[in-house]
Amino acid sequence: MFFLVLGSILALMHLYVWKRTVKDTTRGRARLLASGLLVALLLLLIAALVVPRVADVTASRWVAWPGYLWFGLLFYLVLALLVLEPVRLILRRRIPADEPPVDGPPADEPPVDPPAPDRRLFLARTAAVTAGAAAVGLTGFGAARALGAPDVLRVPVRMPRLHPAFDGFRIAVVSDIHLGPLLGRAHTERIVRMINETEPDLVAVVGDLVDGTVEELGSAAEPLKDLVSREGSFFVTGNHEYFVGDTAEWLRELDRFGLNVLRNENTRISRGGAAFDLAGVNDVAGASRSDPPDFDAALAGVDPTSATVLLAHQPIQVADAADRGVDLQLSGHTHGGQMWPFHYLVELAQPSLGGLSQVRDTQLYVTRGAGFWGPPLRIGAPPDISVLSLKPAIDV
């Protein structure tokens, strides 16, 4: 059903683009060639969506890259054409009807205006070129931002129950790395290098690491073993970890890389006789694999007099965290919206798009993620690696 709906939407988008950029702007053989090109691009996009699911993820890059780039370009082309629709309609009303005059002008007088069909064609071509230029510009900018180095955000977070011994404790938070047909080992190596340069006390990888199996992407994820932090690196599942076949196989692989996987459980982080609890809960998508989130298990035995930090992939899980007195939840999932104007849709589904917010007595921090999913574009939502500096409520 999902692919049927998606396929129908993509077909309608291509049909609209064909009408505005091909049918309205070309004639004869040029129209035939342009129509064939658009059909080929539709087939390429379908292949980009299907091939990685039925063939080796890494081997499908040759079709995924051009297909997903066209996906992004198509989206902004449709958006630009829709924005221009009111202008086009207003200008078309000012063009006289396509009817030959009853009596033409005298032979010795030049016509005042070009024929109406020429003016309509000029208007259609101007709109198509304008929309195309806007779409290409946005796609180029978005691709450069998505494929460039993530921003390193340094965020102070005050926690009333944090012991003064942890003043300045740094947690590097990264999410949504999305290794797959478009992002591989070099992407992981850069993220690991950037995290290590911040010299964190603890690393939190909050889900959506991979879009493929261990056999396909184990080598791409292997640089995670080089993460360096004083208290270790920790991982919780995201929804995509449950879309890749054997989730447990990936969790065993991450454990081999030195990541501590928190599956509805917690551990104590100690320093100088003081401590706080670090808990991790499974993603809500785990319910489809008999591996659902269990907040009671994840927070069992935590000290109610000290701070608790919870790793949970989706911000929406903060409601359960707030019910149980969690001090700080670290999440990802939203990508910050990734491609404007999807920001507005994500805000309807999640309590926070990105950054630090408050839900009752629980603070929620959402990273925009270090990778991308689908089109390799980020517009209005640059990727980030966040370094949270914990502070007690009162300076020491």
TrEMBL record:
Secretion signal span: none
Alphabetic keyword roster: Hydrolase, Membrane, Metal-binding, Transmembrane, Transmembrane helix
CDD domains given in the database record: MPP_YkuE_C
GO molecular function, one term: UDP-2,3-diacylglucosamine hydrolase activity
Domain Calcineurin-like phosphoesterase: 169-336
Keyword Nuclease annotated: no
GO BP: any one term: lipid A biosynthetic process
Domain of life: Bacteria
Cofactor (UniProt): a divalent metal cation
Transmembrane regions: 29-51, 63-84
Gene Ontology CC annotations of this record: membrane
Stored InterPro entries: Calcineurin-like_PHP (IPR004843), Metallo-depent_PP-like (IPR029052), Metallophosphoesterase_sf (IPR051158)
Gene3D superfamilies assigned: 3.60.21.10
Record bears the keyword Nucleus: no
Entry similarity comment: Belongs to the metallophosphoesterase superfamily.
PANTHER family per UniProt: PHOSPHODIESTERASE YAEI (PTHR31302:SF31), TRANSMEMBRANE PROTEIN WITH METALLOPHOSPHOESTERASE DOMAIN-RELATED (PTHR31302)
Protein name: Metallophosphoesterase [Actinosynnema mirum DSM]
Species, as recorded: Mycolicibacterium parafortuitum (Mycobacterium parafortuitum)
Origin organism lineage: Bacteria, Bacillati, Actinomycetota, Actinomycetes, Mycobacteriales
